[in-house]
Structure formats: C-alpha cells, structure tokens
C-alpha cells in the first residue's frame, strides 16, 4: 500500500520566485496511512501523532453534500472552538472567530488559506451597515471559494498551530485544500443541485388593529361627500380595531387611472395579502463539471461551477462563476512543477438593504408601518407618468411620501448592483537533491476588483442619488524554503528554514451625486444637481519575514518541535520574533493494551504579534469637502505614534487525545490560556491637543477556555454503521485593563439608544444601556408615572456566548447514508431595534394585547414605597416606553438550539447506472430546519450581524431567517 512520508515543495528562481507544492509517496514500514496525516501551516502535511497542538479536519463532502454555497459558514457546528455567525441575508457576511476575541479594535478573525494562498477576506460594508443603521450587506471575499472544489478543511485553532504564518494567523488559520487529479486515473464528474429557501423566523405582528394614532378614523369631505379616511402619513398601528362594517378610503383610492379603486371605500379589516406574501421562495441552482486526467507524469484537473442565487426578496439575485485549473507535472527525475489558478466572477443585483435604513423593507415591515396594508394592492407601485404610489402619503390629496416608500418601489427603483472579478492561485517548481534534502519556492497571488453602484430614484422619500465605488485589492507572497529530514537511529529530524515577502495594495474610489438627480432614471455622476463629490484613497503595506522549524521525534513516542518567525512590518516601528514550542507524547506506544488504539499528550506555547493598519505611524493631512470654492484641509482625528508596537498574543495550551476499541470511541480535549498585550487602540484625548484620539499601545485581554471533541461508533457491522461526533467549546474572555483610569472603550453606537463597548473587568462586546432598578426583594421598581424605573448606563451583558456545541449523527446502511447536525449556543446578548420600535409603533404581536387594547397595561412590579404597582398605562403609552425608559427590555439572550442540517445520500447500484457511468450519488438536504430556546421567538440570534468585523450584537432591522432544502445529483464518468 502506498503511504505518505512527507510533503515536498521546491523552489526555482526566475524574475520572481515561483513555487509549487508536491508530495513524495514511498513504501516504508515506518510511515502511516494517509488517514493519519493532516495539512498544517504553510500547506505542509504532517503525521497527526507528531503534532503538539490542536487541529481538526473536515472532509469536503460534508460541505458539498449539504448544498452549501459558502465554504466558511459551512463550518458552523462542525468544529470545536469555532464560533460562526452566518445571517441569512443573501450572500451576506460570515463572522468567524476561534478561541474568543483578543484585540479591542484590530483583527479577530482567523486567516483563510486556499491551496497555500492567504485569501483576502475583507468586508466592504459601511460602518452604518455594520452597526445596524442601514445599508447593504455585500458579504465577505471568501464567498469566492467554491465548495464543490474542496477536498478537505483543516482548522488550526491557536497560536502554536499557526505561528509559522506570523502575525496574520494570530487568531488561528483555516486551510482549504482543493481537489486534484490522481495519478493513473481519469475522472469526469457532473454535479447539479437545486435548493429552495423560505422565510422561517421573523417578528410576529398583531392582527387586531390597523394604522393610525387614534381609536377612530378621521373624516374628510371630498367633492361634497364625507368619507372615513386614514391617517396616511402616520407610520404606526395604534389605529382603530378592525371592523368589517367600518368603511374607509384606502391609500390607493385617489388615482383616477386605477378606475376599479378610485374613490371606492373598502372595509377596515386585516389584509388578505400580508407581509409574508411579499417574500418569494428563494431558489439556488448549482451546476459543476470537472475533468481530472493523468498523462504519465502530468496530472490535470479542470473545474467549472455556476451558482445562481435568487433571494427571498423579489428582484434580488447573485450569479457566480468559478473556474479552476490544478496542474502538477514531473519535469525530470528531480524537478516537479505545479500550478493552481482560480478565476471567479461574482455579480449581485439588488442585495437587500438591512438595518434601520430608508430602503430596508424589514424596517418598514416590522418597525414602522400600518398593519392594514394589502400587499396585492402595493404591487401597483407606480403611475403611468412614473410617479410613486405609496401607502405613506403626506395627505389624501398629497401623494408625496412622508416617511416610507412603497416596498415594491424600493425593490424595483432603488436598487444596487455589484460585481467582483478575482484571480487567485499559486505556481512553482520543486527540486529534490536526495531523499533527505530539497528546496522549495512559491509565489502566491490574490488579485480582485470590486464595483458597487447604488441608486435612489427620483420620486423616492429620500433624496435621489447615484453612488459608484471601485475597489482594487492585490496581495502577492514570495516564499522560499529549504527542507531537511533524516533518521539517526531512534531519532528522526524534520527541519526547514525560509523567507517570505508579502506585498499588499488597495485602492478605492467613490463618487456620489449631491443634492439629487436632475433627470430621472439617468444614473451618472454628471446628472448630479450640484457638483458630484469624489473621494479616493490607496494603501500599500508590506511584511518581510524569515522563519524556521525543527521537529525531533524519538521512537514514534516523543516529539518536540520549535518554530520561529521574525516579521518586519511597514506599519509598525519594531520588528517582532514570534516563537512557538510544542511537544507530544504518544503514550499508546508505552501502554501495550488491546483496548487502547491511540493516545497522545500534547502541549504548546507561542508568542505572536499583530500589526495595524497601513499609514498608522505618521500623521497625514486630511482633505475635506470644499466649502464653496475654497478647499479645506485639516489634521486627522487620530494622532499616530511613530513608535507604535505590534500587539502581542501569548498562548499556552495542553491537550490529550485518545481512541479505544479499534477506534470505536475517542476524544480530544484542549485547554488554552491566551494573553494579549500592547493592544492598539485610538485613545480619546483632550481636543485642545488638535486631535480627538491618539493611537497607543495599552491594555491587556485574556481568553481561557476548553475545547472537546468526542467520537463514538456505537454500531458497526458489514452493512450498517452509526457514528456520533460531539464537539464543545467554552471560552472566558476578559478585558483586564485599558489605559490608566479608562474603564470603557466605545466601539460603536447603535442607531438609537445603546452602545457597544469594551469594558474593563468584563467580557468583550458589552452592551451599554439602562437596566431595570430592583428593590431588596428582587422586584422591579415602577416610578410615579407607571413606567419601569431606569438605572444609570451600565453593562447589560456581552455579545460573547458562554459555550457552543454541536452533535453530528451519521448513519450508513449499505449505499444509503443519513447525517444530522444539531448546533447549540448558550449565552451572549444582543440588542433589538426591531423590538424597540415594533413595540413603540404598535406593530408587534404583543402590542395587540389579544384584541383588548382598551384594557391598558399595568406593569408588574412595585412602587418606590414598596406597594404593588397599580398604575394603568394606555396601550400606546406603554408601547412607547420600550424606546425611552429601560433598554434592557430590548436586550435578549442569544442562545439557540438548531437543527443545522440533515443530509440523506444514496449511491445508485451499478446494475442501475450501467457501464458508461462509474457512479451516481443522489443526496437531499435541509438546513436550519428548526430552532428552539430563542429568547425572542421572532428574531434569530444569528441574524443580528451585518458584517464580519468587531461590530456585533446590534439588530437594526433584519430580514427573516430562512429554511433551506434541496437535492444534489453527482455523476462520475
């Protein structure tokens, strides 16, 4: 049987370094099967028993069989110690962290690596979008990874595992290895799939009362006839109770060209077509074809995938094309070459706006609106002259939108377009001198351009606008290494040294109209009423590194490894050396017992640095918006320190892994202790200095936690098997100190009320707002007006969970397989703007009071004198108190239990598929099928994220979360 001994990479020098990875396969008694090998940092394959740090591997079919379109969000629930937040907005951002938060304002996400290429994972969402104040979620750049091409995913969870990547992998690394052709084989595959997406978790709305602010409808005399009309300009639902005998003129009764509705009263009743009827069934089509061919010493794999996503919001869609070429060849006995090239084109149309924004349909549906609106009537959103028809008229005789556009106007007229073209991959050569020594060099490239344009049509409630953004990003890594391996009696040595030169560039250009558009439907910057505004900036940074590793093994029993990497940053003053030391003891080689299949103790330590943004060492003049004909220049808001140092992250971890009874039972447990120091923060300073902030090194943050994974095979026969995998992660984060007496660092403000902060002595991401006030017996205190008494501003809890866990059951019977994943999160908090304003405006189910608003509300609690509260609040006054009294009313627990995915697969028998097809596999799947244990039944805790950065836990106005179900068919020829 062929077995893997080591990973071989080689170098060639030309005008630049070009490198390629390859592997040497030999027959030897001392090597172990490929199943005992994992991909580690720098793409080097290592035997699991030799590793002194925690890793976890996921096979690519776990991702592809479940119909995933996002290779990062697919990790949710599958990996211990990895927290994934994947909102259901179409193609939206995926927030992923490992082992907690270690930087107050810096990067907290792991490094994403595809076939050795460090992939840019920038999130281009605006600050307003991320804090829930409105905007479109354009997702992360890792959406470009093609799930159909993934062979395996290796998760390097901590500093000791990822230290060789340097500063950028201080938060761990996720390594994707794509499929390649196998020597001596030819394979053609066709994979086609379709999935359907329906709204699932969304706010529940009351169905007893219609729009308005008073209990009776106003009247107006029109052309000599008196009619009941509506408070068209009021975007709230504190109006009269529904009554089929009460007739009124609806908003759509004032346009003569709609003769069937013109001046015709209708009954004051709940609509036949409500909010849910607005949403479509989303449909995603995925088609992949791949050809893998071996020509002697040359192996080639070509792959093309087309993904078409049609979202739940009408008109929203994404089209993505992935092309890849994977080539490796043996040029001579000693020289090998490999190249991997990927091209991706992603085009989005009208990605829905989220949060509290003008074009956020979720904000209009669940926060401010009128519950009597019939969506079948809203579809006629435009007059023949192009003017908008909206329910939110300024008056019966004034059709100008007051606060809200017609939602069908929003999705058809106020849309966006985005596109991204990307090339990434590597190429190179490998030269092997002998069985002990080889050199390797590689160039990795990642280049993409992204265009975004947004439009607000003339006639909208907001000022008409056209905005165009263009962004170009590139990263090249030039790397060389020399490897040596040998055996000396009972000892074996693996070592390498190398260097890396990283070069990053980014340019950004934005143009926007000012004052509105002159001519409707012409979206060009020259169509601006006033001079259009243009802004641009560019960044260029580099890191130069040298690194090395030495691993010594003794009798397949004891392994010790030391690594070191020194980075010279262009963005900070000092260079930094980050070392790591790991060790493992394979105690199963000491304990000779039939019941013990494998056992290992491991320990690791690392010290990793993290730099900061480009141009953070010096102060540069800011060019402001001209005032009339005069240009404006100023100092920046933040004073940059030329002596700024990198953030430092010190990690210690210990672990044990073992398997028993021929691998029928096994576990892997890790404890880690991480301390981050010299945190880079913009410290608020006295404005008399000429600056608002000063960038400094200050503070300390710690993360301590435990990760566990258990594998059990309760049943295993020739025809049937049952495998159970359980993973668990618990992290305790604490901001130990900031600077001097500074106790709070405000990260951002919500659209209204609360703030998100890093608070000394607390876990990161504290939600700051007012809380209830309690008496000595734990009763909520009611003030003299009948409202909850509000505390001073305080922490209402952290966005970070207490723990995450996942259970995967896999059943196989002959050619049939069934896999079920349950994903659990306990703890964490989020603030809901939808709950605050949905209660304020009388939209949410609770405000209907079961159809008896006249009874009013007496809040449970005691007065300040200790007597039971008996103060009656009318319904609108009670609803309004959710906005301006106690913020804790709108803060919810982020716990959930989710049936994350179910996948059923069946391999058709050979007698059925014939001789021309090697195999056919049919799989059906369902994702996010059910959710339990929600603090707010109408909001999915995962759906409150609008970016993958540090701004989390603030729900500004989210679309419903969704259920997805579908099937795939895979043909092998």
Automatic annotation (TrEMBL):
Residues 50-173 form the TonB-dependent receptor plug domain. Keywords: Cell outer membrane, Membrane, Signal, Transmembrane, Transmembrane beta strand, Transport. PANTHER family: HEMOGLOBIN AND HEMOGLOBIN-HAPTOGLOBIN-BINDING PROTEIN 1-RELATED, TONB-DEPENDENT OUTER MEMBRANE RECEPTOR. It holds the Pfam family Plug. InterPro entries: Beta-barrel_TonB_sf, Plug_dom, Plug_dom_sf, TonB-dep_OMP_SusC/RagA, TonB-dep_rcpt-like. Belongs to the TonB-dependent receptor family. SUPFAM superfamilies: Porins. This is TonB-linked outer membrane protein, SusC/RagA family. Coiled coil: none annotated. Residues 1-22 form the signal peptide. It is found in: Cell outer membrane. One of its GO terms (cellular component) is cell outer membrane. It is a multi-pass membrane protein. One of its GO terms (biological process) is siderophore transmembrane transport. One of its GO terms (molecular function) is siderophore uptake transmembrane transporter activity.
């Amino acid at each position: 049987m062929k077995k893997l001994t080591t990973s071989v990479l080689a170098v060639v020098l030309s005008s630049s370094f070009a490198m390629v990875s390859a592997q040497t396969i030999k027959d030897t008694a001392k090597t172990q099967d490929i199943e005992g090998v994992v991909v580690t940092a720098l793409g080097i394959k290592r035997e699991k028993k030799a590793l002194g740090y925690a890793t976890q591997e996921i096979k690519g079919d776990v991702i592809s069989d479940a119909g995933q379109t996002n290779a990062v969000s697919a990790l949710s629930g599958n990996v211990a110690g990895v927290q994934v937040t994947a909102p259901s907005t179409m193609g939206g951002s995926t927030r992923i962290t490992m082992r907690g938060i270690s930087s107050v304002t810096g990067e907290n996400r792991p490094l994403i690596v595809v076939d050795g290429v460090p992939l840019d994972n920038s999130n281009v969402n605006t600050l307003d979008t991320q804090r829930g104040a409105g905007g479109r979620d354009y997702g992360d750049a890792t959406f470009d990874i093609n799930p159909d091409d993934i062979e395996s995913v290796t998760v390097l969870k901590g500093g000791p595992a990822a230290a060789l990547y340097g500063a950028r992998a201080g938060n761990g690394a996720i390594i994707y290895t794509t499929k390649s052709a196998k020597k001596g084989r030819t394979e053609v595959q066709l994979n086609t799939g379709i999935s359907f997406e329906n709204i699932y978790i969304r706010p529940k709305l009351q169905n007893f009362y219609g729009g308005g602010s008073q209990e009776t409808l106003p009247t107006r005399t029109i052309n000599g006839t008196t009619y009941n009309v509506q408070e068209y300009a009021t975007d709230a639902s504190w109006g009269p109770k529904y009554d089929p005998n009460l007739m009124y003129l609806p908003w759509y009764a004032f346009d003569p060209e709609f003769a069937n509705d013109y001046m015709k009263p209708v009954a004051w009743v709940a609509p036949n077509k409500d909010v849910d009827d607005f949403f479509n069934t989303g449909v995603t089509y995925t088609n992949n074809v791949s050809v893998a061919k071996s020509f002697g010493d040359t192996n080639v794999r070509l792959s093309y995938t087309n993904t078409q996503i049609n979202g739940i919001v009408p008109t929203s869609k994404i089209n993505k094309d992935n092309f890849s070429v994977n080539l490796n060849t043996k040029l001579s006995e000693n020289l090998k070459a490999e190249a991997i090239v990927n091209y991706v084109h992603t085009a989005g149309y009208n990605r829905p706006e989220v949060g509290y924004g003008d074009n956020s349909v979720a904000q209009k549906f669940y926060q401010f609106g009128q519950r009597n609106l019939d969506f079948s009537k809203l579809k006629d959103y435009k007059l023949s002259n192009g003017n908008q028809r909206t329910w939110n008229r300024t008056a019966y005789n004034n059709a100008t939108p007051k606060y809200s556009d017609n939602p069908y106007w929003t999705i058809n007229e106020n849309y966006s377009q985005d596109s991204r073209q990307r090339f990434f991959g590597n190429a190179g050569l490998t030269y092997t001198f002998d069985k002990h020594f080889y050199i390797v060099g590689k160039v990795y490239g990642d280049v993409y351009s992204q265009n975004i344009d947004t439009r607000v049509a003339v006639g909208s409630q907001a000022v008409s606008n056209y905005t165009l953004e263009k962004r170009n990003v590139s990263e090249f890594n030039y790397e060389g290494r020399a490897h040596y391996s040998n055996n000396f009696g009972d000892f074996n040595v693996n070592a390498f040294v190398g260097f890396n030169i990283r070069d990053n560039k980014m340019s950004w250009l934005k143009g926007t109209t000012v004052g509105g558009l002159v001519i409707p439907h012409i979206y060009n910057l020259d169509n601006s009423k006033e001079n259009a505004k243009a802004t641009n900036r560019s960044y260029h940074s580099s890191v130069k590194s040298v690194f090395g590793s030495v691993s010594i093994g003794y009798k397949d029993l004891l392994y010790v490894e030391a690594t070191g990497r020194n980075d010279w940053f262009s963005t900070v003053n000092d260079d930094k050396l980050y070392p790591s030391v790991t060790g493992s003891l394979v105690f199963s080689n000491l304990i000779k017992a039939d019941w013990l299949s494998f056992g290992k103790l491991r320990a690791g330590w690392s010290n990793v640095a993290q730099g900061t943004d480009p141009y953070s060492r010096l102060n540069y003049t800011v060019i402001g918006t001209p005032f009339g004909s005069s240009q404006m220049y100023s100092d920046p808001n933040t004073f940059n320190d030329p002596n700024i140092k990198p953030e430092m992250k010190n990690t210690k971890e210990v672990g044990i892994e073992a398997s028993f009874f021929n691998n029928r039972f096994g576990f892997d447990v890790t404890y880690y202790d991480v301390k981050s120091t010299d945190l880079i923060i913009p410290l608020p300073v006295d404005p008399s200095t000429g600056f608002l902030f000063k960038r400094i090194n200050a503070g300390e943050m710690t993360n301590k936690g435990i990760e566990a994974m258990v594998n059990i095979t309760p049943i295993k026969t020739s025809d049937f098997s049952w495998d159970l995998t359980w993973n668990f992660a618990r992290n305790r984060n604490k901001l130990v100190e900031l600077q001097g007496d500074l106790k709070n660092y405000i990260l951002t403000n919500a659209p209204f009320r609360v703030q998100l902060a890093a608070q000394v002595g607390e876990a990161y991401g504290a939600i700051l707002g007012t809380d209830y006030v309690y008496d000595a017996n734990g009763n909520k205190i009611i003030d003299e007006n009948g409202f909850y008494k509000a505390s001073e501003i305080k922490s209402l809890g952290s966005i970070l969970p207490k723990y995450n866990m996942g259970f995967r059951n896999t059943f196989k019977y002959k050619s049939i397989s069934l896999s079920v994943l349950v994903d659990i999160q306990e703890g964490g908090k989020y603030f809901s703007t939808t709950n605050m304003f949905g209660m304020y405006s009388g939209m949410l189910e609770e405000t209907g009071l079961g159809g008896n608003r006249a009874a009013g509300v007496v809040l449970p609690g005691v007065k300040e004198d200790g007597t039971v509260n008996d103060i009656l609040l009318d319904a609108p006054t009670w609803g309004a108190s959710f906005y301006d009294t106690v913020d804790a009313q709108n803060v919810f627990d982020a716990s959930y239990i989710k049936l994350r995915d179910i996948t059923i697969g069946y391999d058709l028998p050979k007698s059925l598929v014939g001789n021309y097809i090697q195999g056919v596999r049919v799989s059906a799947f369902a994702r996010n099928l059910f959710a339990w244990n929600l603090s707010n039944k109408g909001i999915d805790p995962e759906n409150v994220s609008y970016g993958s950065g540090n701004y989390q836990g603030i729900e500004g106005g989210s679309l419903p979360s969704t259920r997805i179900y579908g099937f795939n068919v895979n043909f092998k020829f």
